[in-house]
Specification:
Blueprint: E1 3-5, H1 16-20, E2 26-28, E3 33-35, E4 55-57, H2 64-74, H3 90-93, H4 99-103
Antiparallel strand pairs: 1-4, 2-3
Length: 112
């Protein structure tokens, strides 16, 4: 089993999960995070830290389709190991629907 990040993270990008991850398996896109499934140790400490509830075990209904997405993006996006502020408007985007189709930006996070 592994944990994944799904489209609920898009345009929110809370990083509370990153702060508690013991193995630094989060990777950062411009407007969402992903988990490298081969680096995740399945500890589950990140799941309750996610305000939009975007982190799920891959055994949850609908989560399996996100495993390959998380793997693909974690191979090209930069690793993130420290908590940062959420994206502007994150709270307003928590409950939006069709986030992948309407809001996803397929780019790595800008490096500072």
């Amino acid at each position: 089993m592994t944990y994944i990040v799904n489209d609920k993270c898009i345009s929110c990008k809370y990083t509370d999960c990153v702060e508690v991850c013991p193995v630094d398996c989060f990777y950062e896109g411009e407007n969402m995070l992903v988990i490298h499934p081969d680096e995740c140790i399945d500890c589950g400490v990140c799941e309750p830290e996610c305000p939009p509830e975007a982190i799920l075990p891959d055994t949850e209904a609908g989560a399996g389709e996100w495993v390959n997405f998380n793997l693909e993006k974690s191979l090209i996006w930069p690793n993130i190991t420290e908590r940062r502020d959420p994206l502007p408007g994150a709270e307003d985007n928590l409950d939006k629907t069709n986030k992948f189709q309407n809001l996803f930006i397929d780019k790595p996070a800008p490096q500072n």
